[in-house]
From TrEMBL:
<keyword id="KW-0249">Electron transport</keyword>
<dbReference type="InterPro" id="IPR036249">
    <property type="entry name" value="Thioredoxin-like_sf"/>
</dbReference>
<keyword id="KW-1015">Disulfide bond</keyword>
<protein>
    <submittedName>
        <fullName>Co-chaperone YbbN</fullName>
    </submittedName>
</protein>
<feature type="region of interest" description="Disordered">
    <location>
        <begin position="1"/>
        <end position="28"/>
    </location>
</feature>
<dbReference type="Pfam" id="PF14559">
    <property type="entry name" value="TPR_19"/>
</dbReference>
<dbReference type="InterPro" id="IPR011990">
    <property type="entry name" value="TPR-like_helical_dom_sf"/>
</dbReference>
<dbReference type="Pfam" id="PF14561">
    <property type="entry name" value="TPR_20"/>
</dbReference>
<dbReference type="Pfam" id="PF00085">
    <property type="entry name" value="Thioredoxin"/>
</dbReference>
<keyword id="KW-0676">Redox-active center</keyword>
<feature type="domain" description="Thioredoxin">
    <location>
        <begin position="1"/>
        <end position="138"/>
    </location>
</feature>
<keyword id="KW-0813">Transport</keyword>
<feature type="compositionally biased region" description="Low complexity">
    <location>
        <begin position="13"/>
        <end position="28"/>
    </location>
</feature>
<dbReference type="InterPro" id="IPR013766">
    <property type="entry name" value="Thioredoxin_domain"/>
</dbReference>
<dbReference type="InterPro" id="IPR017937">
    <property type="entry name" value="Thioredoxin_CS"/>
</dbReference>
């Protein structure tokens, strides 16, 4: 019984296995099973006809796997039988890995009714995995908040210290999960410690240092450094020239009043495009970086910017 990819209609064949063998490495309390040639047919192919199977393809040398697998095991215990976590060591089962087309790990596949429903590669954050799973499986009613959700709730409540503490623990537990380090920099910045936030960002590997999420935190950091103080704003209160308008918008962005700041920058573009060597447009793009490409304000004001330009 092959696993069929519904997107291509092609079967994902696996080597013939003995379906009569008992599952090895089974943990009935947490629904976690180590799979190999002896039980792959029974646990993954036949088992998915009754219960969804999350196939975790990993390798002993894979550092991201060491971060991801404990998260998957935790979710398997929480879901309490809503799915089976089948763990495949590709080093010890290279024939199965080749038949499944595994090219890199971690590689996680959701198999239901003998079909490959979805998959992801890489060590995703716990919240992202929860969101991904919830598309197919009903989350347990009593599922606790993930650490990321707890940290985000703390930030929303203005408790940056608690968020920092949570992210510090996540970084300690997952040293190669660099998104957590970016989140930590963001929480440290929210506490008002720009120097430490900059150090965290500067110490990221280059590919993560230049990723959109890190650029966004750095942009917020720089806005805070560039924006005029309240004392300086008081001096500008009776002025309505381009410099005063630009500085007010910069302060609004630095204070998190993004929509008012974006509106001010867009208005400045309309009235004085040449100010500061096109500073309003360049700053708009930096704000988009700070908010992220999917933020509603980024989507709205990128559209307005495009309409103004073209």
């Amino acid at each position: 019984m092959p696993i069929v990819d519904p997107r291509s209609g092609e079967p994902l064949t696996t080597p013939d296995t003995d379906s009569s063998s008992a599952p090895s490495g089974a943990d009935p309390a947490s629904h976690i099973i180590d799979v190999d040639m002896s039980n792959f047919q029974q646990v993954v192919l036949e088992g998915s006809m009754n219960t969804p199977v999350l196939l975790d393809c990993w390798a002993p040398w894979c550092e991201p796997c060491k971060n991801l697998t404990p998260v998957l095991e935790k979710l398997a215990r929480e879901y309490n039988g809503a799915f089976v976590l089948a763990k495949l060591n590709i080093e010890e089962n290279q024939q199965i890995a080749a038949q499944l087309g595994i090219r890199s790990v971690p590689d996680v596949k959701l198999i239901m009714q003998g079909q490959l429903y979805d998959q992801f590669q890489g060590a995703l954050p716990e919240k992202q995995i929860r969101d991904w799973l919830s598309q197919y499986l009903q989350p347990p009613a009593d599922a606790p908040e993930s650490p990321e959700e707890q940290a985000q709730a703390a930030l929303a409540a203005g408790d940056a210290a608690t968020a920092r503490s949570i992210y510090q623990q996540l970084v300690q537990d997952n040293p190669r999960h660099y998104d957590y380090q970016v989140d930590l920099a963001s929480a440290v910045l929210a506490e008002g410690n720009a120097a430490d936030a900059r150090t965290i960002l500067d110490n990221l590997p280059p590919e993560h240092r230049e990723a959109p999420k890190a650029r966004g935190v750095r942009a917020r950091l720089e806005f805070g450094e560039e924006a005029p103080s309240q004392k300086e704003l008081a001096v500008l209160k009776d002025r309505d020239d381009s410099e005063a308008r630009f500085k007010r918008a910069l302060r609004q962005v630095a204070d998190g009043d993004y929509e008012v700041g974006l509106e001010g920058l867009l208005a400045l573009m309309k009235s004085d495009r040449s100010y500061g060597d096109d500073a309003a447009r360049k700053t708009l793009l930096r704000v988009f970086d700070a908010l992220g490409a999917d933020h509603p304000l980024t989507v709205t004001y990128r559209r307005k910017l495009f309409a103004l330009l073209y």
